[in-house]
Amino acid sequence: MRLKSCYLLLLVLLPSLSTFGQNDFGVWVGAEAKKEISKRFDVALQAQLRLDDNATHHQKSFVSPSISFKAHKHMALGAAYRLSSVPFNSSTSNRAFAHRYTFDLEFRKLIDLIKDGSRLGASIRLRETTELEDQKLTENTLRCKLKFDYNIPKSKLEPFISGELFYRFNNQLTYTATEVVATNAINKLRMKVGASYKIKGGHSLKLYTLIQKQLLSQETEMILGLGYGFAF
User: Fold this and answer.
1) Which ranges constitute the DSSP H helices of the chain?
2) For 122-132, what is the mean pLDDT?
3) Mean pLDDT of all residues in 7-18
4) Total of domains in the chain
5) How are beta strands 120-133 and 95-107 bridged, if at all?
6) What's residue 21's pLDDT?
């Protein structure tokens, strides 16, 4: 079964390896610790480092505490704060701090509404993010994510696939003689394919490929991600 898990993990890696043939790719490395404080409440602390420009440039790093509330078997609410270190601008290596506030509404285990106990999982997450830098609003986005995962029988490997739309408010500002017109638009698409592997003692590893497309600039980012998790 371990050999079968390695084969499945390799299938996840193959799209990621192809990113190294591109002119540019990124690497995201992160860790998360999670604690269940009651049957309904969880708290977590996440940290991540992101590299771009062929993994040679420090794009962003952040720490993010969060809390989630299981309102129902199929619904959860969440909130998080993120402190990020980001480039001050494109012409300098100086960095600034950004503050992000996130609110989630997630619908879980949707397949169980049709077939109870299914190994196939499906979830929909609505996320609102507000980000500020130097006390100025830099981004206000509504995100919608659809995710599928599968619990392989007699295996600790769980593959998943997800897609996400980013709808940014005040995406573009148009100045006229009498007013400023703000335009809202879907400005980014994200696709992720990967797998998580559970290890004894509450430890887990996650490997994924992420393709992110900026719709206005037509720029496509290819990212290889690695995550470590620990549940208390």
Assistant:
1) 2-18
2) 95
3) 52
4) 1
5) antiparallel
6) 43
Cα 182 from chain centre:
27
- Residue 45 C-alpha from the chain's centroid: 14
The HSE-up count of residue 56 (CA atoms within 13 Å, CB side) is: 5
Least confident of 86-90, 154-158, 205-209, 219-223: 86-90
Report CA 21 to chain centroid distance, whole Å: 24
CATH for 185: 2.40.160
Q: What phi and psi, each to the nearest 5 degrees, are found at residue 117?
A: 80, 15
| Buried residues in 138-176 as b, exposed as e (16+ CB within 10 A) | ebbbebebebebbeeeebbbbbbbbebebbbeebeeeee
51: which DSSP letter?
A: E
- What domain range is 78 assigned to? 2-231
